[in-house]
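Try this one yourself first.
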C-alpha cells in the first residue's frame, strides 16, 4: 500500500511535469502557429531547459502537430541542439577548416575516447559535455578546444589529459 511519503513524492513529480509542460506551451504560444516557427521554438526550449528532452519533443509534437520523428529529423540536422542535459563543464572541439587541417578531428576523437561519449553527449556523471563546433573565431591558434569558454590553443591529443584534469574531480583520467 502507498504510504503518505510516496504519495507526496508523486504529487511533487506531477506538479513538476505540469510546470514543465506549461513552460513549453508558453514558448510555443510566443511564436506564430506554423512550421516555420519550429527552429525558433526549439531554440527557445533549449535556452529555457538547457537541452531538448524527450518529454519536450513529445509535447512540442503534440502542440505543433508535427511528428516527433520529423522534429528529431530537423533538430539533429543542426549541431546547436543537444538532447541530453548539459554537463558542469562544456567542452567545445573546433572542427572549422583551420582546425580541421591541423588535426581537429583526431583531437575530437581523443576527447570522445577519454570521456567515453560522442560529440553532443554528456558524461554519465554530468561532469562534461562535448560539442563539435564550426569555428571558435580564433583560427590563428588552431587547432583549438574551449572549456567553459576558455580557449586552449594549438591543441594536440597529448595535451588533452592536462586540460581535462583542470576541470575533472574524478580520478585517473590522466592515465586512461
Ligand atoms: S576554424 Fe577553429 S577557430 Fe576557426
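Now uncover the answer:
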Amino acid at each position: 500500500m502507498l504510504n503518505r511519503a510516496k504519495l507526496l513524492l508523486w504529487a511533487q513529480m506531477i506538479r513538476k511535469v505540469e510546470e514543465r509542460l506549461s513552460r513549453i506551451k508558453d514558448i510555443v504560444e510566443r511564436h506564430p502557429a506554423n512550421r516555420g516557427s519550429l527552429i525558433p521554438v526549439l531554440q527557445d526550449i533549449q535556452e529555457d531547459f538547457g537541452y531538448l528532452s524527450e518529454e519536450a519533443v513529445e509535447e512540442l509534437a503534440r502542440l505543433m502537430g508535427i511528428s516527433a520523428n520529423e522534429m528529431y529529423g530537423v533538430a539533429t540536422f543542426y549541431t546547436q541542439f543537444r538532447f541530453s542535459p548539459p554537463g558542469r563543464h562544456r567542452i567545445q572541439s573546433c572542427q572549422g577548416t583551420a582546425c580541421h587541417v591541423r588535426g581537429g578531428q583526431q583531437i575530437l576523437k581523443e576527447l570522445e575516447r577519454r570521456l567515453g561519449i560522442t560529440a553532443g553527449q554528456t558524461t554519465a556523471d554530468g561532469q562534461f559535455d562535448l560539442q563539435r563546433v564550426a569555428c571558435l573565431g580564433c583560427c590563428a591558434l588552431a587547432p583549438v578546444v574551449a572549456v567553459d569558454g576558455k580557449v586552449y590553443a594549438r591543441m594536440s591529443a597529448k595535451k588533452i589529459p592536462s586540460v581535462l584534469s583542470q576541470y575533472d574531480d574524478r580520478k585517473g583520467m590522466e592515465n586512461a
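Discussion: The first helix runs from residue 4 to 29. The chain has a mean pLDDT of 91.
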